[in-house]
């Protein structure tokens, strides 16, 4: 086969994958936000531990960013299967199932990222030394 059976599937997944890659990168960088905030903006010296200064909001943010990264990786894996299906190759699940997983993982990843940002902002505003 010299051309894909469903070329639109490849176009769609390419465009969304660019956004997924961006969010994975941003979420990975954002994992250090609580520590950076405490050290830089609250002036905590290098020798003082950070764990007592991190609140539940910081931990929820870190967990949300981690979930966002994980869902982005799942999206990338399933998108490879989606492209394989677009080329007419055999995959273990149906196109409809792949599309459903792609949709769910994409939107859950976006929600987890927004929750991570929101909880970091709550942490920054309500942290004891701010």
Mean pLDDT: 90
The helix content is: over 70%
Structural class: mainly alpha
Percent strand: under 5%
Rounded Rg: 19 Å
Order of helices and strands: HHHH
The shape is elongated
Number of domains: 1
Give the strand tally. Answer: 0
Task: Walk me through what this model shows.
With 130 residues, the chain is mostly helical. The protein has one domain. 74% of the residues lie in helices and 0% in strands. It is built from four helices and no strands. The protein has helices at 7-30, 33-41, 56-86, 95-126. Helix 1 (7-30) packs antiparallel against helix 3 (56-86), helix 1 packs parallel to helix 4 and helix 3 runs antiparallel to helix 4 (95-126). It is elongated and about 60 Å long. The relative contact order is 0.20.
Topology, pairings included?
Layout lengths: L6 H24 L2 H9 L14 H31 L8 H32 L4
Helix pairs in contact: 1-3, 1-4, 3-4
Keywords for this entry:
single chain, 0% strand, 130 residues, mainly alpha
Question: TL;DR?
Answer:
The chain is mainly α. It has one domain. Helix content is 74%, strand content 0%.
């Amino acid at each position: 086969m010299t051309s894909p059976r469903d070329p639109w599937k490849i176009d769609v997944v390419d465009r969304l994958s660019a956004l997924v890659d961006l969010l994975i990168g941003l979420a990975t960088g954002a994992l250090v936000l609580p520590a950076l905030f405490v050290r830089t903006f609250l002036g905590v010296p290098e020798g003082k531990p950070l764990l007592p200064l991190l609140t539940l909001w910081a931990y929820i943010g870190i967990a949300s960013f981690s979930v966002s990264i994980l869902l982005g990786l799942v999206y990338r894996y399933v998108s490879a299967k989606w492209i394989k299906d677009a080329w007419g190759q055999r995959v273990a699940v149906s196109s409809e199932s792949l599309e459903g997983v792609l949709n769910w993982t994409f939107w859950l990843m976006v929600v987890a990222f927004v929750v991570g940002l929101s909880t970091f902002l709550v942490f920054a505003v309500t942290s004891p030394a701010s």
